Amino acid sequence: MTVRTSVDHVIGESADDLRTWxxxxxxxxxxxxxILAACPNEAHGAERPTWFFPAxxxxxxxxxxxxxxxxxxxxxxxxxxxxxxxxxxxxLTCAQSMAEVVLGLHAEDPSEGYDQVVTWLAITLxxxxxxRLDGLTDMHVANVPLETIVSSF
Length: 153
Ligand SMILES: [Zn+2]
Ligand SMILES: [Zn+2]
Fold this sequence. Notes:
The protein is mostly beta strands. It contains three helices and seven strands, in the order ααβββββββα. The longest helix is centred in the first third of the chain and has 9 residues. It binds zinc ion (2 copies). The site of one zinc ion has 8 residues, from loops. One zinc ion (ZN) binds next to loops.
């Protein structure tokens, strides 16, 4: 898929680098918004962790993020409905599985006066050990309001 093939050993020093890189993905719909994923488990309070064990299937366009600190899985959109039990992601450089995760969204204005809707998203990763950036999957999104996705993470 798009994000997989565009990656060639890019190293990011921070989540901001991952956001910047995600905004520049080409060969796909332009990324208009980026979200750094954080665990939605309320037990974390204000300090929501951003390290996950991601799993995804780029052929199916599905993904799940499992919080490193509490183990709670977060399914991206309706991924659970057609889950294929993919292996947990591993870094191609250092082989560990913890990553920071950015959702790169393509949002459109349906028409004036209506809220923006998301029609596509890419899930990108930064290895928490060596900083290697990677793509997990991308997926088409059925006009989900931007606010709905932003508020889920
Ligand atoms: Zn958590
Ligand atoms: Zn690594």
